Amino acid sequence: MGILENKVALITGAGRGIGRAIALKFIQEGATVAIMVLEENETAVETLEMMRAINPECRMYKGDVSSFSQSRQVVERVLEDFGRIDILVNNAGIAWDGLLLRMSEEQWDSVIDINLKGAFNCIHAVLPSMVKARNGSIISLSSIVGEGGNAGQANYAASKAGLIGLTKSIAKELGPRGIRANCIAPGFIDTDMTRSLGERRMQELASTIPLRRSGRPDEVASVALFLASDMSSYVSGQVIGCCGALYC
To answer: I need a surface site. Which of 19, 20, 181, 229 has the fewest CB within 10 A?
Structure first.
């Protein structure tokens, strides 16, 4: 029996990368997983097939986390289909880098709307059911950039720092209702996004990490598993780094 047996998890932006790894890890530990994706593209469908190979009950829902109404509609459908949501993982996110001097309003708004407002939208939607159950784990994917900043990523850093503030606030607000909230702050993780930098640049970045390598999506997923499970029953309002000591 897995440590998430009989749990229902909703994971946003889980079509690939870290989100996919978290979904598969949760399912392997007994959870029934619903994923929310912006587009039901080939990659997302592939993820769903991988999920259903382990647990046929898992489902995919199309929705834009930056939309308050669409987020609520997806949560309502998950609740109709499964009756509960025990775990919410706010993983959906984008990066649209550029120096602040040249950053457009669209660049700023898009990143904030998806990375930060998207988390608020989904949290707001799941809270009534979690409050009623007096139980729940909310996990948001922040970043070491949200803690230390990064030149050329003011919008991204602001969104990820905002997630930390949001998480710490709701942990205090919802703790009396039995709901926990935590952040994971990944560092340089080997995903499709980072591979676009090229092999040479990836090696250069890895050389700056004390562990001398990039992280793997499944390593971030293991931290999420800990936070989703009863192993972390007294852990709330925390930011757990997964960065190979790049930021500490």
So the answer is: 229
